[in-house]
Structures are given as structure tokens and as C-alpha cells.
UniProtKB/TrEMBL annotation:
A Gene Ontology biological process term: cellular response to nitrosative stress
Catalytic activity: 2 nitric oxide + NADH + 2 O2 = 2 nitrate + NAD(+) + H(+); 2 nitric oxide + NADPH + 2 O2 = 2 nitrate + NADP(+) + H(+)
Cofactor(s) needed: heme b
Enzyme class: oxidoreductase
Keywords (A to Z) from UniProt: 2Fe-2S, Heme, Iron, Iron-sulfur, Metal-binding, NAD, NADP, Oxygen transport, Transport
EC number: 1.14.12.17
Region (Disordered): 377-422
Organism: Streptomyces afghaniensis 772
Record protein name field: nitric oxide dioxygenase
Amino acid sequence: MLSEQSAATVRATLPAVGAALGTITERFYAGLFAARPELLNDLFNRGNQAAGTQRQALAGSVAAFATHLLDHPEQRPDAMLHRIAHKHASLGIRPEQYDVVHEHLFAAIAEVLGDAVTPEVAAAWDEVYWLMANALIAVEKRLRQERGGHAWRAWEVVERVAETDDVATFRLRPADGGPVRDFLAGQYVSVRVALPDGARQIRQYSLSGAPAPDLRQISVKRVRGEGTPDGEVSNHLHARVAVGDVLELSEPYGDLVLDAGPDTPLLLASAGIGVTPMTAMLAHLAGSGHRAPVTVVHGDRSPATHALRADHEAYAAKLPEAAVHFWYEQDAPAGARSGLVDLAGVPVEPGTRAYLCGPLPFMRAVRAQLIGRGWRRPTSTTRCSGRTCGWRGGRPRGRGDQRPARSPAAGPRSAPPRCPPP
Ligand SMILES: Cc1cc2nc3c(=O)[nH]c(=O)nc-3n(C[C@H](O)[C@H](O)[C@H](O)COP(=O)(O)OP(=O)(O)OC[C@H]3O[C@@H](n4cnc5c(N)ncnc54)[C@H](O)[C@@H]3O)c2cc1C
Ligand code: HEM
């Protein structure tokens, strides 16, 4: 909790800090990377830095944390802290790096706000920063310890499967031959690759299933530049990584995970490469005896671009009460629908819990459709950089519709469960 004196100072200066966030962010990263160029090459996403996307996340979340401390002094914004801590822990961020960020963030604030940053103002924002940093450091330490303490581990590619023209699945086994830790369906790993110019860039990939107890599986969509450079890591994985090669992976992280008992009705809605956490969730449900209705919704350009479609259908078919609804913009086969996902005609059981993952326009559209149908606002939100996003909400009991019979698109009831139980 903030001291009374700092709270008053932060309240008075929050509007000025908020209004200058863009410039503060620019100066912060310029100073940070000038002093520590290895952080740009080997830790931060240099595509995001070049494109200017996600840059305000750090400074913006400090301002959001300050707002929360002022509005709810008795509560900690745990959802926000945990989301960031999972990401940081997956990246291998170390406690001493908080001093480096502090130095350059506060230098940027002083440079941008000038004389307004009196010693009193600096001390008040220092208190905010360290309250947040210490909370993050503590959660990150616990998360790392729960996963055995080390950041990176070498994994050998044992199988590579072309799912579609643009999506490849990589199956990996620990190069040290050691055991593979379980994961929760919906979690991701960070993947660190050495690029030809010597930089080591890191990206996150959802675990798209667990084909065997000693394997990890990720499915990567190649990001083609549309007037901008091609995505660095996804194209590197597609062009250069084959069976026998070794990748560095973090342990599984992420708190947007499947959290439902066998009698909780579920809606799993995805689009494009947002299918990856959904197949892991379906695999888990299929292997854990989920009894309640599961409504599976997916949108894609065409059946040919629908990655993991066979898994998507086969796991759904293993469930006693699943209804599958697929939308394709082109070439929709019998049993699927044409166009973009539209939940208007999709009946959903009362008390259903929803998990959404897909590109931002899909997330916005589906979220608006759910809210329009009386769903309460999401209990937690995750914005994953670039390609995928997650949104999880609940639906008030007693406001549902009737469910239809199982869709013919659900496919045969045959595939074995793959994802280890959380
Ligand atoms: C939790 C999480 C889970 C994810 N799961 C998956 C998954 O299962 N499968 C999957 O495929 N992806 C997944 N992603 C996305 C993945 O992490 C990467 O973001 C994605 O692969 C793109 O990385 P990249 O290195 O190829 O692209 P980047 O190099 O990071 O480029 C990203 C974008 O920036 C643009 N850009 C680059 N440089 C510039 C510039 N100078 N000017 C303007 N624009 C520029 C590129 O054109 C591209 O559109 C997930 C992300 C998160 C956060
Ligand atoms: C109080 C201090 C910090 C705050 C509030 C903060 C906040 C954030 C936020 C909000 C995100 C985005 C999370 C998401 O995508 O869900 C993020 C990502 C990230 N943070 Fe931090 N952070 C802090 C300290 C640090 C430190 C000390 C480092 C290491 C030098 C660091 C490195 C990163 C990196 C590399 C990313 C991923 C972004 C990318 O790859 O471009 N952060 N942080």
C-alpha cells in the first residue's frame, strides 16, 4: 500500500505522467538500449520495438498499477501482476534487471517532465515502482521455483509436421533426456532462437497438445510481412529448423488456463492460429472425462488454412456432449458455415465458461456478441502480443439457450487423449 503522502503526490501527478507516457516510453527504451544493447538483441522483441507495438506496455502498466493503488488501496491487482510475472518468468528476467529498468525509466521521466519532477514527486513514483517491482520479483521467483529454478533448457526436434502451408508443428524432446514437466492446458513456452546476425530472440508459443509424456508440442504460424518485414522467429523456425535441431525452451507458463470441473459447460472459441491452446484444452477434456456440454467454435480463411483441424474435430468427438461449429471465409464444406464467426445462432448452455483465442478483430467481434447476448464482462483478459489474444468470461446461470444435437462437423469419435491432466 502507498504511504498517504505518496498517494497524494501520485494522484496529483498521474494525469501528467499518463499524458506523457508515449514520450516517456520512447526515451526510456532509447536510453535502455543505448546503455545495454544486448537487451534489445537478446531479450526484448526487436520486431515490436521497430514497429512501435507493445512499447507502452511496461510504463503503461506502472501507471495502471498506480491508478489501482489509489482507487483500491486495500487490494493488490493480482490478475495484472500474475499475467506480467508469468511472461517475465518465461523470459528468464532476473531481479537485478529491475534496477536497470528503474534507472532508465526514471531518467526518462525526469527528462520528459523536467522541473515537475521534484524530489517529492520522484520519491512518490519510486515507491509505486518498487511496490510493483517487488511484487513481480516475488511472484516470478515462486513461479521459477515451482518449475525447478532454471530458465532455459535444450530440446531436440524429433518430429516436424506441416499442418498447413503456413503452420508447422514441432515435437520436441529434452536434449538432456530428463523428465518433462506437466503443463496446464492453455499455457505457453518461450522459445529462444539464435538468429544469423548473432541476436537471440524470444517468442511465446502455446503448447498445442502433448503427443507423448516425454514430448512438448508447439504449432507455429509463419508471419508474412504485408509491407513490413517477415516475422523473424516464426520464419526462422519454418525455414531453418528441422528434425535433429535443438531449440531452447522455457518451462510452461501462463495463467490463462483451462479451469473447469467435469460438470462445467464450456465454450472454446478460436480463429486462425488461436486454435493452438484450444486443441490442448480439448485434448485435456477428452482425457479427463469431461461430462458437461462443450461448444467448440472456430473461424478460418478456409479448411486448408485451419491448422490442427483433425485434432480439433477428433478431441471434440471424444467428448460425450460436444457441438462443433466451424466458419470458413472460403470453401466451407457441408456441415460448416460460410463467412466470419457469428455466435447469434449458436445455443449455449446456462453457466457456460468461455475461452477465446484469436486475432484482435475476432476477439472484439466475439466479445461484443457475447456481451450482446447477456454475458457478463470478462473476469480476466490477456492480450498476447501480435497474433493471439485470450479472453475468458463467465455466463450468468439461468440465461442460456437450448443446445442443438451434435454437429456433423464433429467428426469421428476416435482420437486418444494427449494432454496430461493439470
Ligand atoms: C502467449 C502467446 C502465445 C502464442 N502462441 C502462438 C502459437 O501457438 N502459434 C503461433 O504461431 N504464434 C503464437 N504466438 C505469437 C508468437 O509469439 C509470435 O508473436 C509470432 O510467431 C510472430 O513472431 P515473429 O518473430 O515471427 O514476428 P516478429 O519479428 O515479432 O514480427 C511481428 C510483426 O512485426 C512486424 N514488424 C517487424 N519489423 C517491423 C518494422 N521494422 N516495421 C513495422 N513492422 C515490423 C512484422 O511484419 C510482424 O507483422 C503467441 C504469442 C503469445 C504472447
Ligand atoms: C516494474 C517493472 C516492470 C513492469 C511494470 C513491466 C511490465 C511489463 C508488461 C506489462 C509486459 C507485457 C506483458 C504481456 O505481454 O502480457 C512486459 C513484458 C516484458 N518485459 Fe517487463 N516490466 C517490468 C520490468 C521488466 C524488466 C526488469 C525487464 C528486463 C530487463 C523486463 C522485460 C520485459 C520483456 C522482454 C517483455 C516482453 C516484451 C517484448 O518482448 O517486447 N520487464 N513487462
